Structure to design on (251 residues):
């Protein structure tokens, strides 16, 4: 009996080690490699899926899981000195890396939220128009008219509707995926100050611009507002020297 218990304990430790190492592997082949020796061991699917996502559920056994609001994720590329675009909105300095799994990220979102400048820059490209046609898109602007926008793009005019309330309602829309705060720095600053952003995800490029549009522009009414973050994960890509940093915003 002692030998059996020791064998079970060893298997448990090895299985736990394999599961805990999963978040550091992106490719599905790596996941299959880790799980192959344990295909006969039944692991609760919910537990397994939370490890695959790199996040653990706080729900205890027997406890009913409460409906979760959608996350707003401010995900951008930035230069090493903190700019997300050149002064004229250019982004041709962004380094490409095909090993970054954008398909996985895109599978987690279905809504884009952005300011006027970001919309005008992106909609002028083939990529932008294709992206907008596949998502719900909301643009915050005081100057744009609905007749100047793509048919599926919805306008949020902060002079007619309170921005905080509109965005809160978007987050409370159950059954949908997360919201990608697509830019820019002004809108990000307003929503961070209002406590509406859940995660900041920055791909730091090995580039120094010297000047440009900063990652965040705090609203004039809250210049001293401090937003505290907790590191969720950090990953480096050796081929491109990109560092991907993900932070959860403290509530």
């Amino acid at each position: 009996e002692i030998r059996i218990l020791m064998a079970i304990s060893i298997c448990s430790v090895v299985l736990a080690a394999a599961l805990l190492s999963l978040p550091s592997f992106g490719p599905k082949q790596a996941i299959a490699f880790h799980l192959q020796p344990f295909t006969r061991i039944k692991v609760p699917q919910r537990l397994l899926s939370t490890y695959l996502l790199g996040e653990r559920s706080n729900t205890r056994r027997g406890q009913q899981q409460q409906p979760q609001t959608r996350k707003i994720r401010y995900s951008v590329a930035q230069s090493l000195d903190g700019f997300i675009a050149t002064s004229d909105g250019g982004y041709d300095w962004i380094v490409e890396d095909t090993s970054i799994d954008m398909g996985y990220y895109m599978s987690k979102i279905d809504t884009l939220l952005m300011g006027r400048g970001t919309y005008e820059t992106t909609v002028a490209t083939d990529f932008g128009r294709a992206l907008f046609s596949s998502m719900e898109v909301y643009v915050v602007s005081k100057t744009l008219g609905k007749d100047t926008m793509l048919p599926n793009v919805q306008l949020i005019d902060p002079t007619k509707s309170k921005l905080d309330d509109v965005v809160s309602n978007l987050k409370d829309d159950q059954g949908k995926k997360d919201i990608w705060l697509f830019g820019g720095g002004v809108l990000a600053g307003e929503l961070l100050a209002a406590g509406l952003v859940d995660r900041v995800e920055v791909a730091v490029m090995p580039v120094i611009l010297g000047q440009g549009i900063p990652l965040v522009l705090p609203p004039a009414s809250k210049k001293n507002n401090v937003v505290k973050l907790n590191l969720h994960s950090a990953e480096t890509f050796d081929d491109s020297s990109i560092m991907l940093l993900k932070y959860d915003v403290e509530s």
Summary: Strands lie at 72-78, 83-85, 109-115, 136-140, 153-156, 178-183, 199-204, 213-214, 229-237, 242-249. The CA atoms of residues 73 and 199 lie 5 Å apart. Confidence is low (pLDDT under 50) at residues 2-61. The longest strand covers residues 229-237.
